[in-house]
Amino acid sequence: MARPRAIDRATILDAAEQVVLRDGAARLTLDAVAVVAGISKASVIYDYKTKQALIQAVVERWIAGWGERLDKATEPYIDGDDARLRGRIDVARDYKEEEDGAVVFQLCSAMTQDEQLRQTMNEGFRQELGKMLSSTKNPDKALLALLAIEGMSILQMFGVVEWQPEQREKILSGIEQLITQD
């Protein structure tokens, strides 16, 4: 009988995110991840043969987590119009710098140098856009609203603007008005 796996992949990915936050994606090393995870480098290599494979796994996990977060935020609106977009607005209201900003910022820098990462992020966004547009009666308004939300979020993520909670709420309320007006 095979010995049960002692090292959870989530532990390695958590450690990789910590290294990305601390050092940046460009400086992530398998050695650094092993140290943070408290395991051997060989254990990291066993699951993720290369740095790029490890970053790819972090991106894929982040996309999946983001989708789950949106699914949960969408639940209260599931029987109404613009359910996914309303869920996205609620997620934007609950902005968490560490979850929504810092790691993504670092992963975006890695994405500029890796076509496969760009494809993964692009596919994740296309799938989410498809879900959002399929749950609306007015795709043009929904797209405009999504672009406004993403623009607001990206400006904060890249440190261009630090939205205060009341500013964020005013913007998101305006976006809600946009999608509810005929």
Automatic annotation (TrEMBL):
Keywords: DNA-binding, Transcription, Transcription regulation. InterPro entries: Homeodomain-like_sf (IPR009057), HTH-type_TetR-like_transc_reg (IPR050109), HTH_TetR (IPR001647), TetR_CgmR_C (IPR041479). This is TetR/AcrR family transcriptional regulator. Pfam families: TetR_C_28, TetR_N. Gene3D superfamilies: Tetracycline Repressor, domain 2. It comes from Paenochrobactrum glaciei. Residues 6-66 form the HTH tetR-type domain. The keyword Aminoacyl-tRNA synthetase does not apply. Residues 29-48 bind DNA.
